[in-house]
Amino acid sequence: MSTTTVPSPSHASAAGTHGLSFGGVLRSEWIKFRSLRSTKLLLLFTFVAVVGVGALAAWLRGTIIQSLMTTGSARPEGGVHATTMTLAQAEAAAQAQGINIYGIPNAGLQLGILVLGSLAVLLIASEFGTGMIRSTMTAVPRRLPAFAAKAIVLVVVSYVLTLVAALVTFLISIPILHHYGIDMSFGRDGVVYGIFMGGVYVAGVALIGLSLGTLLRNSAGGIIVLVALFFVLPFGTQLLGLVPGDFWKYVNQYVPSVAGGRMLEVGHKDAFIDPHVGGLLFLAWILVVTIPAVITLKTRDV
Amino acid sequence: MIEAVNLAKHYGPKTAVAGVTFTVKPGQVTGFLGPNGAGKSTTMRMVVGLDRPSAGTVTVNGKHYAEHRDPLHQVGALLDAKAVHTSRSAYNHLLSMAATHNIPASRVNEVIDMTGLAQVAKKKAGGFSLGMGQRLGIAAALLGDPQTLILDEPVNGLDPEGVLWVRNLVKYLAGEGKTVFLSSHLMSEMAQTADHLILIGRGKIIADAPIADILDGGHQTRVRVRTPEASRLAELLGGTGVSIDSSESETLEISGLDARRIAQSALDNRVLVYELTPIMASLEEAYFDLTKDEVEYHSHELSDVASSAPEGR
């Protein structure tokens, strides 16, 4: 490496004179996002997995409905001669158990939120871990534009990836469901809504992940809290439903994953919050972690 | 131009920087010298707003760093060679920093060439040696062609060629009228690079003066004399205000008399002298002289020093 050359005179024009702009910060965060190979591989894997789980769900739900039509029960019990059902009856019976057809494009979403949520934690926690954050905050000393730019990159990537995965899943599910005599189309109630809303849910989880990474400044810690929030909490609160008393039965639907999941559904369910209420609750959960994250980022030393 | 006024930083009960006031002027290289843990890095981090001062203020080119419209054009900072994502290439690291200020990609290539990173620019920064990491940090600092350059221990881990390069670079930039603020705990390095010196110890400014003044200040110049008649000459020269040491045979180290008067005395008494060398006080000696008092006055706080300010966090 030869560096004995005296530096050539550098003019301000060579380095540009535009100064800091939000567009520039956004472009910077995009460059950072796309310049890590691990991120690209992870997104590809997520896409394949989400579509794969969706296709599997289409097949599974098709068999369940077919079995309902022929035996009148998803799990035929020996000895009892079941009555047959029409397709509409079978679909209604399945839906009563939470097995709906219109939700198939979003069937792989649990995987999506796990990976994209973790990726969001890593997006900022790895900067704290490696020291990159000091470069970022020196270039953007007001700090919040950098956070906002990261959030926008994450929301757009999460939304687009989920939307495309949902569309592909939808297309794949058409021939699979057709095999069982079920008609899957955009005309079906809740399909278009679900395809467009799935990305909103995943983007929201990504925002929560980014905020957790900002608060904890630690990749492992952030991912653990995220998993606890989205995978342990719903399970735990479901067990709470076994505790006598009405109150405990309702706790489960207020946790972020259940409220957020409800946001993707259509129609009324007995003893359950409506989809728009689920959406508002999920938004509240996002704010509960994002606001402290923003305040901490602005005030704490890096 | 960097102006700090009563700038202080406390970490809980520990004081890293205890209310320092200083000005770093453009057109010269200002050295920031002090032992590890003296508060150099913390002070520099406060200049660019990474650490929030507990008290006091610091401005760069007249404004708080964060209030500038174009921070990277105002200040280029190398605070920590590890402020890089280890899985990202050097080129993409610089490109992402440049993008914030709409600095063209051609400037990225320019600083890569300037710092001699062209061969490794597409490699992951995590695999860089300390010296290459340092070059990348300097490249990032130069990216915005800043008016003020802040370099924390820039020669750490550099090979001799790199050290020389940094020395020439900062002198060149200061010559262009830029403000250069350079920290080091290597006094010999400072003696060769800096025009002005700010000495810091235990979070306090000990001295703030042109480097020549610090070398002269309070330290008598000594003269080394070699003569076969050492003891006789010592007797002839002895007197009030003169101290004479003899570390080896035929050699005297004399302070309190200048070389001319020693030569005159030797000539008058027909003593043969075969070496007569004025010895410049080294920066090390000046530094220890200056910090000695600080240590004596505050020796009860010693435990504090050992655990103060996490240097180079």
List the helices and strands and how they pair.
The complex is a heterodimer of chains A (302) and B (313).
Chain A: H1 22-34, H2 37-71, H3 87-96, H4 109-130, H5 132-139, H6 144-179, H7 191-216, H8 219-240, H9 246-251, H10 256-262, H11 275-299
Helix pairs in contact in A: 1-6, 2-3, 2-4, 2-6, 4-5, 4-6, 4-7, 4-8, 6-7, 7-8, 7-11, 10-11
Chain B: E1 2-11, E2 14-24, E3 29-33, H1 40-47, E4 55-60, H2 71-74, E5 75-78, H3 90-100, H4 105-114, H5 130-142, E6 148-152, H6 160-175, E7 179-184, H7 187-193, E8 196-201, E9 204-210, H8 211-216, E10 222-226, H9 230-237, E11 243-245, E12 251-255, H10 259-268, E13 275-279, H11 283-297, H12 302-307
Parallel strand pairs in B: 3-7, 3-8, 5-6, 6-7
Antiparallel strand pairs in B: 1-2, 1-4, 8-9, 10-12, 10-13, 11-12
Helix pairs in contact in B: 3-4, 4-5
If you had to describe this structure to a student in words, what would you say it looks like?
- The complex is a heterodimer of chains A (302) and B (313).
- Helix content of chain A is 70%, strand content 0%.
- Chain A is mainly α and 302 residues long.
- In chain A, helix 2 runs antiparallel to helix 4 and helix 6 runs antiparallel to helix 7 (191-216).
- Chain A starts with 21 loop residues before the first helix and ends with a helix.
- Chain B contains twelve helices and 13 strands.
- By secondary structure, chain B is an alpha/beta fold.
- Chain B has a six-stranded mixed beta sheet with strand order 5-6-7-3-8-9, sandwiched between helices. In chain B, strands 11-12-10-13 form a four-stranded antiparallel beta sheet, with no helix packed on it. Chain B has a three-stranded antiparallel beta sheet with strand order 2-1-4, covered by helices on one side.
